[in-house]
Design goal:
By secondary structure, the chain is α+β, with helices and mostly antiparallel strands. It contains two helices and five strands; from the N terminus they run ααβββββ. The chain has helices at 2-45, 49-66, and strands at residues 71-76, 82-88, 109-114, 119-124, 128-130. It is globular and about 70 Å long. A five-stranded antiparallel β-sheet has the order 4-3-2-1-5, with helices on one face. The chain has one domain (2-96, 106-130).
Length: 131
Amino acid sequence: MIIALILQYKIIINHLITIKKLTTMKNKQFLSEVMTLAWQFVKKNGYTLSEALKKAWANFKLMIEMQKHIVKFYFQKADGSIREAYGTLAANLIPAITGNDKRAKNDTVQTYFDTEKQEFRCFKKANLVTI
């Protein structure tokens, strides 16, 4: 009986260690993605590293919030005007997607489902103003 409890305890401890390692790996990957986006802003848009990191963190915060619910945010359009948008990436709030998407992925734009227009839209990540 005691041996069985000890074995169960060891199994539980091993599972907890594995979960902690996976969480740490996800955090490292997340930080790597933030830094990659920030360097992209520095190289392509001429931002300082400080400005680029702020913009990169804002983009990732927006993406995480949009995966949960509808978010109000602002971005600068190509003509220079500021657009207010209500968007989401939550699977339960967007319509079913049919067909396959063979287009090349673009890391410089953020796609979202516009809940006012009821269609997918995108904006340049560097043009995000506020959340």
